[in-house]
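Box 3.1 — From sequence to structure: Glycolipid-binding domain-containing protein
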Amino acid sequence: MPRGRYSLHDPHDHTPLGEEHFQCAPGPSGWRYVSQVTTPSGDHRGSVDLALDELGRPLRLELHAGGWQVRGAALDGVTWVRTDPTGTHATEGNVRAHAFTGTSPAFLIATTRLLRLTPSASATRVRLVTFTEPVLAPRTVDQSWALVKREAHATDNAPLTVDEYQVTALDTGERHTVHIAGDVVLAAPGIELEDLQSPPSVFTA
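Predicted structure (token representation):
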């Protein structure tokens, strides 16, 4: 069960946004990721709880940020309920999308589990619902994902397989690179892996 810490920063001006302390693991139904997010000063800022089924679809999502809460799942596309900080108003949303995304590294892993890309495959288009912080406002985005290369790196234990993905935002054409090993993001825009206490999990399929 990998445990560790990511540092988060603005991908454009590199302003520190805080840290995400996480643990994740494959399970009988798929994969689960839980984390606590802190501000640069160390105060609690939010949390992420994401569970996927064996096909990479979101069984359950629970996000907290700025007093707001989102609960969601794959249902007729993706469906969610967003609750305001007072807890008195809840709004439901539904979009014909494949899955969720957001600032957490968990969503990058989730997208790769959903797409199951191979290095020889062409780029795949995916529609996702992202929740923008700090108020978790929903927004639908279209992306293109391609697995550019897969390399094995020698370690003190078993070889570590690292996948390099190219992700394109289809509304702007902006491209960026994501490096993933198993269920851990090694590097991505706005995300740096700072500490890892156990090796990444290896997915069998």
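Summary of the box: Residues 54 and 184 are 17 Å apart (CA to CA).
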